[in-house]
UniProtKB/TrEMBL annotation:
Requisite cofactors: FMN
NCBIfam families for this protein: PRK11815.1 (NF008774)
Domain (DUS-like FMN-binding) ranges: 1-230
Gene Ontology biological process terms, A to Z: mRNA processing
Any Pfam family the entry gives: Dus
Keywords: Flavoprotein, FMN, mRNA processing, NADP, Oxidoreductase, RNA-binding, tRNA processing, tRNA-binding
CDD domains: DUS_like_FMN (cd02801)
InterPro entries in the cross-refs: Aldolase_TIM, DUS-like_FMN-bd, DusA, tRNA_hU_synthase_CS
Superkingdom of origin organism: Eukaryota
GO molecular function terms listed in the Swiss-Prot or TrEMBL record: flavin adenine dinucleotide binding; tRNA binding; tRNA dihydrouridine synthase activity
Coiled coil: none
Protein name as catalogued: tRNA-dihydrouridine synthase
Amino acid sequence: MVDISTPHFLELLHIISGDRYAYYTEMHFDQAIITHQSHLEAFIGPPRPNVIVQLGGSNPENMAKAAKILQEQGYAEVNINVGCPSKAVQSGQFGAVLMKSPDVVANVMSAMQEAVSIPVTVKCRLGVDNLDSFEFLHDFVDTCNSTSRPLPHLILHARKCLLKGLSPKQNRSIPPLNYDRVYELAEKFPEMPISINGGFTETDEISKALERVDGCMIGRKVMDNPLFLQNMDRGK
């Protein structure tokens, strides 16, 4: 989350729950990684086994170069953001708008996989605008999974987004959640680790979700109350 999962915030989460969970950085543009490679820790934080760097971009060469820099500096995993609907991100041709171009995402993944050995994962929505059928989502994921290395982890924000007419904040609440769509996809890709994201605020909800998928990404709840991690530690 931009301006939220900063190095200082991630450090706080490590203090609260250590290495128990995976923590995602803010989304960083590929060119920013390339330009600032001499001092990445200043705006990403130190490399840790459970910190995943989220990247934004659509140029295969630049994304591969950024991933290689991150690997060389000790970062353990990179995640391609295919879910952010902001106008600035759309104008750069990355984020959620890339769901309309699955072949571009696959080309980016292929270039990154050739450049690094660390996991390259994807976070996306259920769809964009009127492209919100299960068939569309299935085909998008199938294309992403058709590269030389199978997709090692997919994180699904369980709602679609509207690229025009809604702000990023509104896109986090107005399009309805559809957990069943995520669970249906998980059944179609049983070998692919899939995590669900969106609207989880209680530990019992998370536990029920984990009966159907491999992971659950928590955003706003932990942003508003970082000590919620302790509730999860205790299973309360």
